[in-house]
Amino acid sequence: MSPSPRIDSVETIAAHLDVLVGIDPRLAAIRAVTGDVYPRIDAAGFVGISRIVCGQLLSVASAAAIWARYIKVEGALDPIGFLNLDEAAIRAVGFSGGKYRTVRAIAEAMASGTLDFDHLETLPADAAVGYLTAHKGIGPWTAQVYLMFCAGHPDIFPAGDLALRKAVQDGLGLDRLPEISELANLARNWAPHRSAAALLFWRYYAVRRNREGVLS
Hints:
By secondary structure, the chain is mainly α. About 60% of the residues lie in helices and about 0% in strands. It has helices at about 10-25, 25-35, 45-55, 60-70, 80-85, 85-90, 95-110, 115-120, 125-135, 140-150, 160-170, 180-185, 195-210. The longest helix is centred in the C-terminal third of the chain and has 19 residues, at about 195-210. The protein is elongated. The N and C termini lie far apart (about 35 Å). Keywords: DNA damage, DNA repair. It catalyses: Hydrolysis of alkylated DNA, releasing 3-methyladenine, 3-methylguanine, 7-methylguanine and 7-methyladenine.
């Protein structure tokens, strides 16, 4: 079975990992530790990216509480509806001023047609990240997380994620924590299957931390 372009099932991830182990046999031992690797697919488009912005620099619990209040605001889940809301309504649920301005800029770009999430899903990895980060308030991390978890993009590796850096160090037996640029360069060897590699290492991080108390 050839890998699907979308990372949206255990079977698809397994197909990508089959190819990855052939590219880099070191990943076989990591895969033996993790067992099945599961996808995480969130809502796409305005809802998905708004949720990612909501969660930036917050604990999972705090982000979930704010998001639960946000989705109850009438119109907040639609770009046009959002533009009809005033800042106070969004700030009242827990959004910072910066996050409000970012989501508003996204809503404006969607309303004007300069940000098209359907078009985004047709782009290769680097072009997709560049397309998103060209819009005000969307940084590389937001773009990469959206592409992986909302678009199911098969070739994204968020090298700045600390858990990934720790997992790669441990899993590959590196003598130190890789710098972000070093990990990004290493991950290029796993293209065009980098999303499956990231999911594999995140799963490895969780398993190792829970079983052995390492990687803290």
